[in-house]
Design goal:
The complex is a heterodimer. Among the domains of chain A are: 2-234, Rossmann fold; 365-435. Chain A contains 21 helices and 20 strands. In chain A, the strands form four sheets. In chain A, strands 6-7-8-3-9-10 form a six-stranded mixed sheet, with helices on both faces. In chain A, strands 16-17-18-13-19-20 form a six-stranded mixed sheet, with helices on both faces. A four-stranded antiparallel sheet of chain A has the order 2-1-4-5, with helices on one face. The longest helix of chain A has 18 residues, at 174-191. Chain A starts with a strand and ends with a helix. In chain A, 53% of the residues are buried. By secondary structure, chain B is mainly alpha-helical. Chain B has 13 helices and three strands. Chain B has helices spanning 8-24, 28-45, 54-75, 108-134, 137-143, 149-178, 187-210, 220-245, 251-272, 285-303, 308-318, 321-324, 331-336, and strands at residues 76-77, 84-91, 101-107. A three-stranded antiparallel sheet of chain B has the order 1-3-2. In chain B, helix 1 runs antiparallel to helix 4, helix 1 (8-24) runs parallel beside helix 10 (285-303) and helix 3 runs antiparallel to helix 4. The longest helix of chain B is centred in the middle third of the chain and has 30 residues, at 149-178. Classes of the chains: A alpha/beta, B mainly alpha. The interface between A and B is large, with 72 and 45 residues.
Chain lengths: 537, 337
């Protein structure tokens, strides 16, 4: 279906070879995963297939890429729409019209498909992707998972043979991600579509894929069956790490495979107790954040319906819940950027809305979902200087923090040119310069690969050890299992659960981490817990 | 399902018909009847969509225009002899402005003429706002001929981008608070992230449109030729309209020439784009009737003398959409199933 022949790609400014003489082919009806570190060229590889690279982005390409016999050299992306559909990283940014139905028909209108055929295809696609209820909805009101499905529907109506998706589940909660992925699996099995996805969240997609392309970052790629690639890869989901550690053969990729092999391990662990999570004596420590009867309203709908909770020193609190459950509103109210309808938010005993400047940032550091909003300097060094001035610390403080987080960062680099993980570290350094007592992170792992995530976990743990507190809102169950001491669950603007990480995560099947699914009923959450328990015994 | 509304172009034909009639009718009674007719149609046929508010805005604008016209008419105008009501103090003007006077006697005749002129303005504004309140602007854009499709898409994109731009500004302002930055004037710090954000978004949208086949079938030479003809037709029609309003000979020739050019231009341009339309707007008997009454309305005021019979006919023609605008639900949905 797709064949790469001696393909090389260079971006002239970057002076770096992205790909060097790639040769491979993808047969029809395969579900292929592209994995690799951030900035290694996953998106470029996807865009090469439909010709957006280099037609739309520039860059020097040599070699030949053909899709169903058509060369991307000779055809612009718009001339390949009947063969290839692509859904970008943030599908909402690619919407052209304003309602679901019109968006789905947009591509067909350009192709000049007769009106009656369009009607039929729109109905079919609405049914296929379960969007019939949403057909008249304005696109601006869709949730993340819905937008993703509409974007897929919008390319499917052109009846492509190949579907390309860039990080389709990164921004989604586990349930919405499951929905999108099961639809993709159905498209492969029922329609024989060839699907290629680039994704960081391996634990979500691994069970669906036929083969993996591992982009190594030095211009080379490795292609093989998931077991082969996983056996050699440093970054792997917990189930694979556990399988490698226990030398299980064949290497399990899914919870089901691992559970079958884990019988002896479960018996061995039955006598051991998981290391006690460092959960500070909450009652005795001073409170850093108190939220009382908090209500937040946007126009007519209540985003938060009377939330109460407090955070004391040294806690790492994870806030979970579906997209639109009110997580971001809750976090925003703690730094006074979400207007409060009623109730109180007290930071160290003072109302959050009244704090400003230095007195605010020395209490609370906030990393928003779009971390780049905080950056306006022209180089890493300039950002650090600004941060020193704003937080009134001795010049050089921010840069010192940054070089601990990222030892090899170039100080003259432009913040926009950094990878997602590097940028997050830069923003963290800026926020941490004022030594806040409370750090708040909104979706910190979107777009982070495993190594960047490990670094983040280390930073958060170190903060908690110093007696500082952390609140993070995230969909990343594995991250929560690693760091959180407490989990709060929100639904429809209400707090529906609040308790220890172990208790909350193991009680819900959708939000349980892989290790706990494999070792249930044992109370284990992470791979590292198991290894340290086994070492001690 | 929602009720079918008339094709937006039919509503515009109706609105323009009323506007032209108003500009050609000196009769106060006819003008008042036109206003009442337009209001009746709007209130019985309007939807609850946001653009339906255009009529209320139009009424207010029209009133302001009327008042301004009255004030100017009283203070500053050419003297008209007649029954003097009151006299304003005169301000002397230089010789070269002979014929114009500030202040002076105000006659009832002068007031009557000013009021009729003001009423004409009011009716014109009312007619246009009535059409914009009734015609669905999105459907109107979509109903544009293929050659103008790009302009339509650009408009729709820009309307969806404005709210995004607002949230983007909010986010950046919040970010400054989060960095503890208390500098008052910080154009750079706000502008740089917003511009970068908008640019990134534009690039993403561009690549999304490209990879969804936008511009797949357009042959550029045919389109360029078509656009040139269309442009000339707009020029010709504008000349025609100006000649007509200034009551100079030759208006009909320029106008007719413009219409012929317009038709050719659309034909050529549509030939070169092979786009199709999802759920095209339907144009049926009701639309034809509205357009026909609109043409009848215009010809009536152009070629007939004033009479009470005539004024009544104007009113009845003006409210014609009340009788023909369809009541059935969207027909096209049934056709498709």
């Amino acid at each position: 279906m797709i064949s790469f022949n001696q393909v090389s790609l260079i971006y002239p400014q970057a002076q770096k070879t992205i790909f060097n003489e790639l040769t491979f082919s993808v047969p029809e009806g395969e579900l292929l995963l592209i994995m690799g570190q951030t900035g290694s060229g996953k998106s470029s590889l996807l865009k090469l297939i439909n010709g957006l690279v280099p037609h739309h982005t520039g860059g020097i390409l040599s070699g030949e890429i053909t899709v169903a016999g058509r060369s991307t050299r000779m055809h612009r992306p718009r001339e390949l729409v009947d063969l290839i559909g692509i859904v970008g990283q943030s599908p909402a940014e690619g919407f052209v019209t304003d309602t679901v139905e019109e968006e789905i028909a947009f591509g067909m209108e350009s192709l000049g498909i007769p009106s009656e055929v369009m009607r039929k295809r729109v109905e079919e696609t609405l049914d296929l992707l379960g969007l019939a209820q949403l057909r008249n909805r304005p696109l601006a009101t869709l949730s993340g998972g819905e937008a993703q499905r509409v974007a897929i529907a919008a390319v499917l109506t052109m009846h492509p043979k190949v579907l390309l998706l860039d990080e389709p589940t990164s921004a989604l909660d586990p349930i919405a991600a499951e929905e999108v992925l099961s639809i993709l699996a159905r498209l492969v099995h029922d329609l024989g579509l060839t699907i290629i996805i680039a994704e960081h969240r391996l634990e979500r997609v691994l069970q669906f894929v036929d083969r993996i392309i591992h982009v190594l970052g030095d211009g080379q790629v490795r292609i093989g069956l998931p077991e082969e690639i996983m056996a050699q890869s440093q970054s792997a989901p917990p189930v694979v790490l556990l399988g490698k550690d226990q030398e299980w053969n064949p290497l399990p990729l899914t919870v089901r495979d691992a559970r079958r092999l884990a019988e002896p391990l479960r018996e061995k662990l039955a006598d051991l107790t998981p290391p006690i999570r460092k959960s500070p004596e909450i009652k005795s420590l001073p409170l850093i954040l108190e939220i009382k009867k908090l209500m937040v309203q946007y126009e007519k709908n209540l985003a938060l319906k009377g939330i109460d909770f407090e955070v004391s020193q040294g806690e790492i609190v994870a806030i979970m819940g579906r997209n639109g459950a009110g997580k971001s509103s809750l976090l925003g109210s703690t730094v006074g950027i979400t207007p409060i309808k009623s109730g109180q938010v007290l930071l160290n005993g003072k109302p959050a809305g009244e704090l400003k400047g230095k007195s605010l940032i020395s209490l609370v550091g906030f990393v928003p979902q779009e971390a780049t909003d905080l950056l306006y300097g022209e180089s890493v060094l300039q950002e650090c200087t600004f941060a020193d001035r704003d937080s009134q610390v001795t010049p050089g403080t921010t840069y010192k923090i940054l070089s601990q987080l990222l030892p090899d960062i170039s100080e003259i680099a432009h913040p926009r040119d950094l990878s997602e993980g590097q940028r997050l570290c830069l923003v963290l350094a800026i926020v941490l310069a004022a030594a806040p007592k409370l750090l708040i992170l909104d979706e910190p792992t979107r777009g982070l690969d495993y190594s960047a995530k490990l670094r983040l976990i280390k930073i958060l743990r170190a903060m908690a050890d110093e007696g500082r507190s952390v609140i993070l809102a995230t969909h990343d169950v594995e991250l929560v299992a690693e760091v959180a001491t407490r989990v709060i669950f929100l639904a429809e603007g209400e707090k529906i659960a609040d308790g220890s990480t172990l208790e909350i995560l193991t009680s819900s099947p959708a939000f349980a981490p892989q290790i706990s699914k494999i070792l249930a009923p044992g109370k284990w959450l992470t791979f590292s817990e198991i290894t340290s328990a086994l070492e001690q015994s | 399902m929602n009720q079918r509304s008339l094709h937006p172009f039919a509503w515009w034909a109706w609105g323009i018909g009323i506007a032209v009639t108003a500009s050609q009718t000196p009769g106060t009674l006819a003008l008042i009847l036109l206003c009442i007719g337009a209001a009746m149609v709007v209130y019985s046929k309007k939807s609850d969509q946001p653009w339906a508010k255009a009529f209320a805005i139009g009424v207010r604008l029209g009133l302001i225009a009327f008042l301004i016209r009255m004030i100017i008419g009283v203070i500053l105008s050419v003297p008209i002899p007649g029954n003097t009501l009151f006299t304003l103090p005169t301000i002397p003007l230089p010789d070269w402005m002979a014929g114009i006077r500030i202040g002076g006697p105000v006659t009832s005749e002068r007031l009557a003429i000013t009021a009729t002129e003001g009423l004409t303005f009011f009716t014109l504004i009312l007619a246009i706002s009535a059409a914009s309140a009734l015609a669905n602007p999105k459907q109107g854009l979509r109903a544009l001929p293929g050659v103008m499709h790009q302009a339509g898409v650009a408009l729709i994109i820009s309307t969806t981008l404005i709210p995004h731009f607002v949230t983007s500004i909010q986010r950046v302002k919040q970010a400054r608070r989060l960095r503890g930055d208390q500098q008052r004037i910080a154009f750079r710090k706000i502008a740089v992230p917003i511009f970068e954000d908008s640019l990134q978004r534009a690039i993403n949208l561009g690549s999304a449109m490209e990879s969804r086949g936008y511009g797949f079938n357009d042959s550029s030479t045919g389109r360029r030729f078509g656009s040139q003809i269309l442009l000339s037709s707009v020029v010709a029609i504008t000349i025609g309209v100006s000649l007509f309003l200034a009551a100079i000979e030759g208006a009909a020739i320029a106008f007719g020439f413009g219409i012929i050019l317009l038709a050719t231009g659309l034909f050529v341009a549509n030939k070169s784009t092979k786009r199709t339309r999802y759920r095209p707007q339907i144009w049926e008997r009701a639309e034809w009737v509205v357009v026909a009454t609109s043409i009848a309305l215009i010809s009536l005021v152009l070629y007939e003398n004033q009479s009470i019979f005539n004024t009544l006919s104007i009113f009845i023609l003006a409210i014609s959409p009340l009788f023909v605008a369809p009541k059935e639900s969207l027909k096209i949905r049934e056709v498709a199933h």
